## 1
Amino acid sequence: MIADLVYAVAGAGLLLAIVLPALLDRWAVSVPMVLLAVGVGLGLTPLTDGLPIDPLDHRAMIEHVTELTVIVALMGVGLALDRPLQLRRRASWRAWGSTWRMLGIAMPLCIGAVTLLGVAAGVGLATALLLGAALAPTDPVLASDVQVAGPRTGEHEVDEPDELRFTLTSEAGLNDGLAFPFVYAAILLAQHSRGDVDWLGWFAWYGVAKVVLGVAVGIAVGRLLAYLAFRSASHSLRVAERGESLTALAALLTAYGLAEIAGGYGFLGVFACAMTFRSAERSHDYHAAMHEVTERLERLLTLFLLLVLGIALSRGLLAHLDWRGVLIGLGLILVIRPASGVTALLGSRSGMDRPQRAAVAFFGVRGIGSLYYLAYAMGESSALASPWLWSTVGFTVTASVVIHGALATPVMRRVAPQELDPAEGRPPGG
C-alpha cells in the first residue's frame, strides 16, 4: 500500500511538473509554491496515512534521495553555464569574480551570523553551527526562476551570459560542496569538546584536501568522457554523434562515486565534471541534449520531494518549531543573506548595477541541499539528531520557497534582461 502511494504521489508530481510552468508563467507564483501547497492539502487527507515522512525515523532514506537530487541538479547547472573557467588563465578567474565574492565572503558571513544568532538564542554551539552550515548553500534545485535557462549551443551560442543569472547559478553550483567543511566542523564539535578538536587538521583535510580531491577527480572524469564522446577513434564510443544524452547520468554517477571513494567532496566532483565536459566542443548541441535529460530528472525528483515536504508540514514536521527557529529562518532570508551578499559585492567590477547586485544578494534560495546536510550530519553524530533542527530547517525552506517564489518573477523581469530559451530562441515558458 505504501509503495503504491509513493507511485501515485510521484505520478501526480510529474503531471504537475509538465503543466504548471506554462500555467504559472505570468503569475507571481512558482511551481515549488504550488507543489508545497498541494502536499499540505494531501497531508490533511487520509490518503497519505502510513507514508514514511518522519525525518528521525527515515533519516537515511531522506539523505539518499536528497543526495541524488542535488547531484543531478549540479550536473545540470555545470552543463548550463556558458562561461568557461580556465584554471591557467587569470582573466578567466576574474570573469568569475562575483561568484568568488559570494562564495568567499557572503557564505562564511551567513554561516557565522546564523551560528551567532543561534547561540544567542540559547542553541548549543554544534547545533547552531550545523544549522548555519546546512542553510548556507543556495539551492540549484529550487532556484531555476533566477538562474540561467540552459546551455547556449549552435546558432544560439553567445559570448556574454546574463551576469545576474550567471552569478546565482555558478554560486549554487559550487557552494553545495564548499559548505561541507563547516558541516564537518559541527560534527566534530558534537563528538568532542571544543578543546579536543584538531582545528588545523580539520582545515587541512576538510577545508583543503577534500576540496582539491573532489575537483581533481571531477576534472579527470569530465576530460575522459569528453574525449570519448567527441574525439574517440572508435565510432561506437563517440556518443555525441548519436546524441546519446544518457551519458549525463553516467557522468554524474561516475564523478560522484569516484570523488567520494578518493576522499573528496562528491558534489564538487560532479560540478567540476560537468564544467569540464561543457568546455569540450562548446557549441555542440549535445550539451543541450544532456542538460535536458538532467533537467527533467531533477524536476521529477524535486517535485516529488516538495510534495512529500508539504505532506510532512501538515503532519507534524513543524511541531517543534519555536520562536528561535522562526527568528533564525526569517532572519537568514530577510536580513543575513541580503546583507552578506551586498557586503560581498561591494566594489565588484562585474558590470551589474545596484538593483542587480541587490537581486543577487536577496535570492539565496534554500532548499533540498539543506535537508541533505541535516540528514547527513545526524547520521554521523546522534548528538545532532534533533526534531527542533528538522522543524527549523523545514520552516526555513518553506519560507524561502514562498518568499523567493513570489518575488522571483516580478523582480527578475524588472532588474534582469530576459533570457532566451537556448533550444527555441524565446523567453523560457513564453
## 2
Amino acid sequence: MTTLSAEHLSLSYGATQIIDNIDLEIPEGKISIIIGSNGCGKSTILRSLARLLMPQQGTIYLDGKAIHQQSSKEVAKKLAILPQAPEAPEDITVKELCYYGRHPHKGLFSRQTPEDHRIVDRALSATKMTEFADRTLDALSGGQRQRAWISMALVQDTDLLLLDEPTTYLDLAHQIEILELLRDLNETYGRTIVMVLHDLNQAAQYADHLISIKQGKIYKEGPPETVFTKEMIKDVFRLECCIIENPVEQTPLCIPIGLSQD
C-alpha cells in the first residue's frame, strides 16, 4: 500500500500564504475528505499532495520518500489526481481517454498490450462505463463524463486516488452516484482516496477520516463522529447548527440554523 504524508507544510501563491506549517498523514486504504470554507486552502493542499504545487516550506512524502525527489513518471505510477475541471478533446472516446492513463507504465514508443486492454476493461466495468466505451465525451451526461474521468484515473492503476470536488456541477442524483462509486472502489479494490468536498453532510457520510481546515491550519481531523460537531461548524464555517444522527448511515448530520453572530 502506498503511503502519503506531509511535514511542516506551508503553501503560498505569490506573496499570499495559504497553508501554514501543517502536518498531515493520509490513512491507508481509507476515504479522507478535506472540508473548510471557501478559500481556506483545501484544493491547494490536494494539489501539493499530488506534486502539482511546490511547497513554500516542508516536505511531502510518497512511500516515505520526498515526492519532489521523485520523477513525474515515478509519482504517476503511485498516485492519480482528478482535478476539478479536467480537459480533453470533446471528440475523444471514453476508451481512448482511458488509455491515456496507461502512459506512466509505458515506454516512449510502446504499443498497447493485452495487460493494458485488461486494465482498461476492468476500469470501465468498475465505473459501469463499458456500454459507453465508444462514445465521445461530448455525447455523455455530466455524471457519465465524470465516471469516464474516474475510469481514466483507475487505469493509471495507482493505490492513491486524489479528487478535487468530484461532484461539482452535478445534480444531487449524480453526486450520490459518484460518491457511491468512490466508496465501492475503496471497499472493493482497497484504493486510498483523498478528496475535497463542499457538501458537509456528504463529507460526514462518506468519509472514514475527516480533515477540517481553518485559516491555513488543520482545525481538527479524525473520524466524522469526533470532528463533525456543532462547535467545528461554528468555528470553521461561522454557522449555527444542530447535529443529529443520520437515520440511514448513523453518521453526523448538520441541520443549519443560521449564521453565527460571534
## 3
Amino acid sequence: MSDTQIFVKDADWLDWHPNPSVPAFQVPAGAVDAHCHVFGPGNEFPFAPERKYTPCDASREQLFALRDFLGFERNVVVQATCHGADNSALLDVLAHSDDRARGVVTVTPDVTEYELARMHELGVRGVRFNYVKRLVDPKPDEYYRTIVDKIRPLGWHVVIYFEPADLREKWDFFVSLNIPIAIDHMGRPDVSKPVDNAEFELLLRFMRENPDVWCKVSCPDRLSHGPIRGGAPLYADVVPFAKTIVEEFSDRVLWGTDWPHPNMKKEMPDDGILVDYVPSIATTAILQQKLLVNNPTTLYWS
C-alpha cells in the first residue's frame, strides 16, 4: 500500500454490471467461480505504472457479494494485469476470505522463498503468465522458467493466457516446463470458424498429449461474434468449442465468471446470464459437478 492516489478510468472503460439477473440455473453445492479478479480500489491498492489500461474499482466486498448472489461458495482470484506484480489487492482478498478463496499471482524472477511461502499460507496456488500482447509485454522464456523453478517445490501450477498463434509458437516451451498448466479462456479460439479448425485442433492435441493441462471454458462474452445482446444468453457460437472440451476432458475443466470483466468494449455481460450459460456446455449433472466443484477443489483446495 502507498499514499492515496487518484486514478481516472479509461474513457472507454465499461463498468461491471451493477444489477445482474438471478440465474435460473442453480449451481451445485460447493461451486467455485474459478476465474475472477479484483481491481484496487485504486486509492488503497494502486494500479501499476506499467499498466496498459486503467479500470474502475472492483473491491473484495463487491466480489464476495456477487459470489453469494450467484450461489457460489468459493472463488479463485487471478491477478489482474493492471496491478502488475504487486499482488497486494489479491492477497487482501485471500486474507479476508475465511478460506473460501484461492489465488493466482503474478511474480518476477527475483521473488523470494519467504514471499512465496507467505503467499502459499494465504492461499495462493499458482502464477499467471500472460502472452496477450495488447495487455502486456511478454518476457523471454528464461524469465518464466526461473519463476517455475521457484514455485515447483510448493506444488503450484501455471496459468497461461494466450491466443491461438501463441500456442504454436510456444508449444515446446510450455511442454518443457513440466508443471501443471491451466489455460485461460480456451486459448481464445476464433469461434467464427468451424469447431474442427486447425487452431482449435491444436489446442485439443495439446491437452490430449499433456495430461497435466487444464482448461478454463470461461468468457463466452469475450469470444462470441454475436452482435450486442446477440451473443447472450446462449452465446451459441461459443458453445460447440466449450462443449467439446468439457466432454473430452471432463476431469480437467474449470469455469469462472471473469468478473469484473476487464477490457470489454461492446457489451458488459450479465453475470446471471453467464451462470445460465453453464448447462449448455456441461449438459449433465455429473459434468456440472466436475466443472464447478470437483475439478477446482482438486486443483486449488487439495
## 4
Amino acid sequence: MDIIGTSALARPLIGISGRRLRGAAIGAPHGFADAPLEAYLSEYSTSVLRAGGLPVHLPMDAAPAELVERLDGVVIVGGDDVDPRRYGRTPGPFTPLIDPQRDEFEAGLIEAAIDGAVPLLGVCRGAQLLNVVRGGTLHPHLAHGEGESHGSYAYPRAHRVHEVRTAAGSVAHALYGETTRVNSFHHQAVDVPGTGIVVTGWAPDGIVEAIELEGLPVVGVQWHPEVFETDPVFGWLVDQASARTTLAVVSATQNVA
C-alpha cells in the first residue's frame, strides 16, 4: 500500500465548534423542549467543504485536547460575548447571555491547537476568545453608529460594509492584498493584544479586524467570512492543515522505513 499517496489525497479533517441550545429553539415537541442540542451555522461547514476540507462538529462534552489530537485544523465560530471576567472585567449593561461552558470548551480547543501547532481560524467571537486566551483584552462595547466598523444587523449577511487595511507581510495581506471590504456584526473587538498576538488588520476607525499568532498557523478575523460564497481564509486553513498532515505522514513513513 502506498501510505503517502493514500493519505495525501484525503481531505484534511477540520473541526468546527458550536453552541449549546435547547430543543425549543428548533420547535421540538412537548417533552423535548428542554433537551440539549448543539448547533452551528452550516455556512461554516460549506465554506470548509468548498475549500477542500472535511468538516466535523466538535461536541461540547468531549475533551478539547482529545478532539484536537485527531484533527488537522480547527474553526472557532462566532457567537455571544466572551465572559468579561476572563479578561479582568465584569458583565455590563450591554453584555448578553454568557455561556461559561462554551467559553471553557473553546478556550481548551484554542490552547490544544496552539500546543500542537494545529492550524486554527477564529471568526468574530472566535478571534476575540483567541486574544483572551493569550492574555489579551477586549473592548467591552462598541456602540452602533459611532464608528465604521461597529456591527449592525440592518444589512444582509454578505453585505460588505467597510474596508479593512492589512499589514504588509501578514497572512491577511497575502490573502486579501492591502485592503479588502468586509461585513460587520459585532459590538466587541480586540483591545490589548495577548502574548504573541500580532494585529494584522484594521478598520478605518482603528478597530482591530485581523490578528495572527507569531510563529504558528493561527488567524483570527473580526468579520464573518463564512457567509461569502468563497473567502480565501478557508483555503488558507485547509492548505495549512493539508501541509501539516502530509508532513506527519512523510515523517511516519520515514520512521517505519
